[in-house]
Amino acid sequence: MSTTENGVDGGSTSASNVFAAVDIGASSGRVILGRIKDGSSATADGSVELETVHRFPNGVVELPGGLRWDFDALFAEVLAGLTAAGTAAKLQDETITSIGIDTWAVDYGLVNAAGELMAQPFSYRDDRSRAAVAPVHRKLDPARLYATTGLQFLQFNTLYQLATERDLDGLQALLIPDLIAFLLTGQRRTESTNASTTGLFDAVAGEWATEFLTALGLPKKLFPPLIEPGETVGTLLPEIATRVGLPTGTKVVAVGSHDTASAVAAVPAQDEDFAYISSGTWSLVGLELNQPVLTEASRAANFTNERGVDGTIRYLRNMGGLWLLSECQRTWGAEGFTPELADLLAAASALPPGGPQINPDDSAFIAPDNMPHRIRATVRHTGDLLPDDPVAITRCIMDSLATGYARAIADAERLADRTVDVVHIVGGGSQNRLLCQLTADTTGKKVVAGPVEATAVGNVLVQARAAGHITGGLTELRRLVVSSHELQTFTPQLSRL
Length: 497
What we know:
Layout: E1 18-24, E2 28-37, E3 47-57, E4 60-63, E5 66-69, H1 71-91, E6 98-102, E7 108-111, H2 133-139, H3 142-149, H4 158-162, E8 172-175, H5 176-185, E9 190-191, H6 192-195, E10 201-202, E11 207-208, H7 210-215, E12 226-227, E13 232-235, H8 238-244, E14 251-253, H9 259-265, E15 274-279, E16 282-289, H10 296-300, E17 304-307, E18 313-320, H11 323-334, H12 341-349, H13 371-381, H14 390-416, E19 422-426, H15 433-443, E20 446-449, H16 454-466, H17 474-484, E21 488-490
Parallel strand pairs: 1-6, 6-14, 9-12, 15-19, 19-20
Antiparallel strand pairs: 1-2, 2-3, 4-5, 7-8, 10-11, 13-14, 15-16, 16-18, 17-18, 20-21
């Protein structure tokens, strides 16, 4: 994907400005080469160019004990991607400066002193942690948890998962991107943006809340030391470097390893109060703040305060997302109905407004199963009816997401005492014109869509700044995003409501 719009001349690329981004979501992953062109600082005259060199599927698998990630296969794909990245760079007479890794949050692998992974990591979609919620809350009052961590309650948060574990002495928990970095470098660290999703991180102090570990009977050194985006984790182990064909001195640099943190870093906002929606498998809807909001009202509204790049706070609500539609497509495909997504959305757009809606956050939608059946059953329980028609179900999902987005943004404005002028949608959902337009309609605000690959862009920008190739804070980094991407704008159409 070339991102040199607006007449920007990319210029030549040297060995010092090529970076590998390992970007893995809950349903797919990719390894992307990022090239920073034209300049030593992030100005409107510069650009960032992405080249996807390897794509691979990802998903939960049913293994003894529950739903897990096939991490061995996942890591093999990472190595294949880094090999492809090295080959692609050599074809251009380039050398990869560093590697950054981002993935989804909350899940972890347990590693012993010898560095061995004890078992394939559980997936957050496994139901094992549900039974741990009440026992954890008997030891740690939910109000106290929130006042310290600022974390939204989700039954699969890391602390509830860990509460189900036994015999953790001598083991360390490495969150998924940290586990990948460890296998590449031999260095054990926990990147802070992902640490903030565990429920065991102090939102104000920016440190582990060790008193919570003690209260839950967990080892105080269960997690490795913290590291910030832009710091170096380590360099490739010799055997890894040989296997993927990269120099042994190649650095692995911490980025916003929670994929949403990297995505928000690449929101193309300039001198404006903005809300963001990182729209993909999940929808992360909120504001960027300088300080957490730890009030009881914020807890009651189930907002989270997670760490962002440069010490910012991602004040957001984690909502259901396009997983709902992708699971429907999977079910329809098994039944022999395989329409193009664009055709499905176009047909859904033609339906009149005012149809039935669901709560995308309903826990009934977390596990993989027959999603169309569950959506129709949920609508039926509200006293409404939804036809067994893919177009109608698709429109129901889009309307429900847009309504949820509007509610979350209004709540965030109220709780944080902020007013936003524009909503930025990044990620896969930014390509969904129906969803973007409905979001503009329901919020009554201008919506700016793009970039699609915001997570990879944010990953690359943090690496490039760490290498000294670009300078400045988030405003300067985002200026580079604006100059590099063609963005789409949607304005409210009140007649659609």
